[in-house]
Structure formats: structure tokens, C-alpha cells
């Protein structure tokens, strides 16, 4: 049995975390035989291989009576970059418990349990259902939206200030109406609006003062190459770069401009978590 959970793009600001996009990078958990102790096979030297692995810890918190199994985890989702790797791991843990303990949870119950570990409803909804999910900050309702084709890239600098996203946003001047306009532009692929208004939150308000010079340099490179601009991904340090779908030279030009990091092309996907 395999569980696949996609990564998610959000912007970790008061309103930005209400807009979440599922991407093709994902983690996959293969459930193998029972064992005396949990054994999590993966190739990341920084992550635990036993019951302390987040996937197992969440599963045991959901069903403490679970029998240990051998798990094989593979991932195309960069860890600690702001692409929802912990969100995906927590959801994988809930789905693992649901399967092994025969909990028969509904989708709503899965999301409710996952909220105990990752308290961002739009991000969880995108990971569960796929696509673009928007949570209305006024009434809390989550709706699915279909975006026009655009080019999405993640740029991860080799060197960065760890706390790239501020803990507090004291000068936040963006309103729900601003995000509604952004969502409408993304749905329509409105080139003119995106060139004049993207991102809706200034880059300076999204990053710490120490990180701003580097982020602004990346943003200038994106604009110089014909893109719309950047915003911080989740907690960072990765930066989301957006460009028109028809600009075939954008990626080549941007790779030439940005040489002190990794540029990853992402595809938005309509498919959410899968258990097969």
C-alpha cells in the first residue's frame, strides 16, 4: 500500500496562508511488513528512522495501539524550504493511521485531525484535494479555484538567513479584497494585472530586514527576465517566482541570472493525497 501527499505553496503572512496551491513535488510512503519496531527507510540523513519520524509520531498520536511496520519513504519535496513538507508528513501520518487502524475517517475528519499538527486549513485542503484552495479569512469557507497556466519556479539560495520570514507582520496593509483580486487575476491569467500588482504584499513586508537584500536581488532578476515577481514560500527560505506561460526563454534567462542557488520548476496539480 502506498500513500502519496503533495507539497503545497503558500505565503506565510496573515493573509497569504489562506491561498494554497498543490504542486507536483510530493512524499510517498510505502507500507511494508509488520515489524517489532517502527523502521522508516529513507535517504535523508537529518530525519529519524524510527518512531520519532514525524509520519510515525503523528500516526501513533492518532492511534496509539498501532502495530509497528516497516515504511519506505521517498520524496521529491525539498525539506525545510517552505513547500509544505511538514504539512505533507503530518497528513501522511493521519492517512497511515487511518489505514492501519481501520479508522474509516471522512475527509473532514482527516483534515480536522491534521489541524492539530499543522494549523493552516488552506494548506491542508490543497494537500488533501489538490488544486488551488482559498480560505475566506472572514467566514472561514474554503473554495477550490482553477488557475490559468503560468510558470511557477522555486528558487532556494545556497546561503540564507534562517529566519527569512518574520514572526510578526506589524505593517500589514493588505486586505481580503486584495487577495480576491489576486485570485481573480491568477484564474484569468491577467497579464496586465499581474505585471502591475504581483505580489499583492510588498517583498519588504514578507521577509526579515536581514534577508531583504537577497530577496530583492532575486525579485529584480525575475523581473529582468520577463517574470511577474516573487513571494516567500511558507517559512522560506525558498522564493516562489512567477512568469507568463508563453515566455519560453524565461527559465533559461533566470538560470543564467541566479547562480547561487537551485531553481526548481514546479507544476500545479489537481490531484491531492492518494492512498492506493
From TrEMBL:
Range of residues in the leader sequence: none
Q: Determine if Amino-acid biosynthesis is one of this entry's keywords.
A: yes
Q: Which InterPro entries match?
A: GHMP_kinase_C_sf, GHMP_kinase_N_dom, Ribosomal_Su5_D2-typ_SF, Ribsml_uS5_D2-typ_fold_subgr
Q: Give start and end of each GHMP kinase N-terminal domain.
A: 67-130
Gene3D superfamilies (alphabetical): 3.30.230.10, GHMP kinase, C-terminal domain (3.30.70.890)
Q: Tell me the keywords, alphabetical order.
A: Amino-acid biosynthesis, ATP-binding, Kinase, Nucleotide-binding, Transferase
State the superkingdom. Answer: Bacteria
Instruction: Report the protein name in the record.
Output: GHMP kinase N-terminal domain-containing protein
Organism (species): Lacticaseibacillus baoqingensis
